[in-house]
């Protein structure tokens, strides 16, 4: 049923069922690391990654109307494979919340990932010209581990589909109950876009 709903919505829109349109920009993730560690190498270890960021509006409402804003991050792994994270503006950590500006408030993964040492949320907040990336246990404080620098120039000419289930960051596993919801939704959205003749 979920697949059919997302397929129909994507077919009508000729785009993704949710976050149908967005701007994809080049970015760099500068990781200073985290101690004590989480068991997730990408979070714990310092380094620098080439990345893409997609800013989008969840329901596709026109600006300046508030909408649940999306920040999709794709990091290029050392092997060249994509690692994807999807964050949305929230009230607190778990409740999707509409905003007008991606630089206001918190972006959160909403669902906690299954990490090697327990559940972890990932968040981003705009501070002094860049996004701070942080992790937190469901009840613990946010712990910044990296800076996300968005370069403000278009990164690609073709649409990019971010899929955190297929392209999970190693150690940040999507919980099974969320996989059961997300996989048919993404599959339905992809089929709907193919039927409409568009891949965006």
From TrEMBL:
Identification of the protein by name: Phosphodiesterase
Domain of life: Bacteria
GO molecular function term, any single one: heme binding
Organism: Kineococcus rhizosphaerae
């Amino acid at each position: 049923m979920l697949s059919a709903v997302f397929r129909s919505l994507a077919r009508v829109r000729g785009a993704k069922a949710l976050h149908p349109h967005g701007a994809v920009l080049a970015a760099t993730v500068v990781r200073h690391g985290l101690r004590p560690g989480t068991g997730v190498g990408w979070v714990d270890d310092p380094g620098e990654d080439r990345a893409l960021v997609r800013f989008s509006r969840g329901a596709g409402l026109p600006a300046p109307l508030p909408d649940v804003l999306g920040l999709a991050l794709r990091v290029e792994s050392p092997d060249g494979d994509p690692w994807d994270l999807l964050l949305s503006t929230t009230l607190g950590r778990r409740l999707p919340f509409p905003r007008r500006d991606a630089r206001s408030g918190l972006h959160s993964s909403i669902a906690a990932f299954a990490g090697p040492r327990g559940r972890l949320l990932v968040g981003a907040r705009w501070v002094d010209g860049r996004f701070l990336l942080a992790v937190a246990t469901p009840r613990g404080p946010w712990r910044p581990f990296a800076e996300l620098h968005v370069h403000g120039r278009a990164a690609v000419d073709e649409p990019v589909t971010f899929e955190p289930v297929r392209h999970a960051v190693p150690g940040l596993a999507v919980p099974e109950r969320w996989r059961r919801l997300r996989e048919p939704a993404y599959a339905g959205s992809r089929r709907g876009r193919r039927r409409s003749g568009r891949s965006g």
